[in-house]
Amino acid sequence: MSQVALKSRKSQSLRILDVAIDVGLDLLHAVTDLGAGLIRRQTRNQTEDIQRLCQWLSDTARLHGFSQVRLIMEPTGIYHELLSRIGHAYGFDVRTVQAAAVKGNRLVMFGDFGKTDHRDPEVILDLAKNERLIFKRILTDTFQALRNAGVIYARAESDAARAKCRIHRALRRVFPDFPLSKDFLFSRSGEAVMKVTGFDPHSIARTYPKRLDQRIRRLAPRIRRSSITKIYESAKLSADSTPSNPATELTLLELRQAWNDLHLAQERKAESAAILESLFDQARLLDHTLPPPQPGLISKLNLARLVAETGPWCDFSSARQLLKFIGLNLFEQQSGNWNGKKRISKKGRPLARHILSLVVIPLVRQGQLLGDFHHQKRTIEKKPGPVAITASARKILGVLFGWGRSGRAFDPQRAFTCESQMRKAA
Asked: Among 82, 148, 169, 232, which residue's CB has the most CB atoms within a 10 Å radius?
């Protein structure tokens, strides 16, 4: 499930019973108002107890002439998901409120930032009266699976990055004179050196050079002999400056463990990437506004990861709404004669913004789709690098959204030409 910031509107013909619930690990604290004062209920955050609560709410609403029950809660990671699912099964309208709105309204109502499980539902209920709610989208099975696969891929990507950092630190301790770059280290040649020597400079220095060359080239035939020679000569220097003691042995153990963790993370990335691409093909059959992958613009994997975060694009009426959902919408601060800088809100989905940055970085090089656009931001408008990259991310998201809606083949010229100019040219 994901969130779209939409202002809720009550229908004049419906009587809606608002029920505010503070969700905890073990307990739920519910508050509602039937017109004669607040009614409170407390129950466990377990299936049977929530079902009894929902049945009581359904019966109470019907008895008092309400046509709809609206459950309102503050998102709590995973603890509110069970309540949301059961609420939807009972036909309730499930909404959430922003944590920042709850915090600010708590100060307005009680004059302090104190937090208790008993008064927080009152704060949420007051927000509901002012319609400061967030509509919760229910993703179909395909899009929910796509989102879960995207999370698994992101975790594997993060695990791989951490493993590489651990490898670099351990290698620097035991083999400070290692002469080759990280591109070599994490290549097939680097893996062969790891399997043969464990990057132990003392072991390398004790090995006859010709024997070392044979063993490594058996696993990586295309490795350069000059690289093996550099490793051997540098190992002799590091062996002289790095003691062979229990501490060094433990660092070598850490290096081996980090290397194994890297392999495991890479396998998980490959497995989840295949699932993401397969699910994306299914998603495009359900949502015809999704663009196809385009060489030189965006790969199927990155497109699948982006859609995993946003959900179906047919849910958004404009590119601006999609930008706001991701958190790339601009806001400004102004007071009197003072005007602050425009910034992005960063209130949406951070992983989606990360994926867009990965998509944009290759496209801002000279000769690529966003090369001139990025160059203008940097050299003519004098924007800092991160600001220019953000502007490019906003641009490429608009391009992808419009292209998907058009249903036509991708035209690079159309990305920087408005529709009226295209009609004149035609």
From this structure: 232
